[in-house]
Amino acid sequence: MNLPHIKTPLSVEAYLEGELHAEVRHEYLAGEVYAMTGASRAHNLIAGNLFTALHTHLRGGPFRVFMSDMKLRLRHAREDYFYYPDLMVTCRAEDNARYWCEQPALIVEVLSESTERTDSREKLFAYQHIAALQEYLLLAQDRRVATLFRRAEEEWSVTRLGGGDTLELASVGLSVPLERIYEGIGEEDGEAGT
Q: Residue 27 falls within a domain, yes or no?
């Protein structure tokens, strides 16, 4: 008789140790580990443009901007989750773990065909449980479109921007034209236009 294979969840400690030596980053969802794929040229340009705008704007203040190699740790329903957002901004002095943040004010994900569903559903739901989170921004890479989720009390509003619109990030006091975020992106980078 063959017994079914029972998959034992990976402990948080084993995951964190493995990530220190892994060649590929992995997200951790309540004991399950998922490898992350590489990012496209457009993805990197968009994330880099917004990182530059945020870093320049926030320099010298209490905010810290982190790129995609810093993990976000969530605890929900007695389970641990670790994600790698494309960008995070945090300003709480107590949010100072070496390899992750837990209380960002702003999270940004650059969408791709393979991540759009996860970023706009699973992560949106998970991120809304972060008490300090004020805004969650999704940036398309195949067109110049931004979707901004903003917390107002216990409710979340959504704003969609495109073309010549200006993105207003109240969580960090930054106003930036969408064209600046998409600067340098063209059809050769996989961007289809407005």
A: no
Domain count, the chain: 1
Q: What is the extent of the structural domain holding 176?
A: 39-70+84-189
CATH assignment at residue 150: 3.90.1570.10
Among 54, 52, 73, residue whose Cα is nearest residue 63: 54
On whether the CB atoms of residues 156 and 147 are closer than 8 A, the answer is: no
Name the residue type at position 47: A
SS3 breakdown of the chain: % helix, strand, coil, rounded to 5?
A: 25, 30, 45
In this structure, is residue 2 part of a structural domain?
no
Residue 90 lies in a domain: yes
Q: Per residue of the chain (194 residues), what is the pLDDT tens digit?
A: 454 544 678 888 998 888 898 888 888 898 888 888 777 899 999 999 999 999 999 999 999 999 988 999 999 888 999 999 999 999 888 888 898 999 999 999 999 888 898 999 999 999 999 999 999 999 999 899 999 999 988 899 999 999 899 999 999 999 999 999 999 987 666 554 54
Q: Is 22 within a domain?
A: no
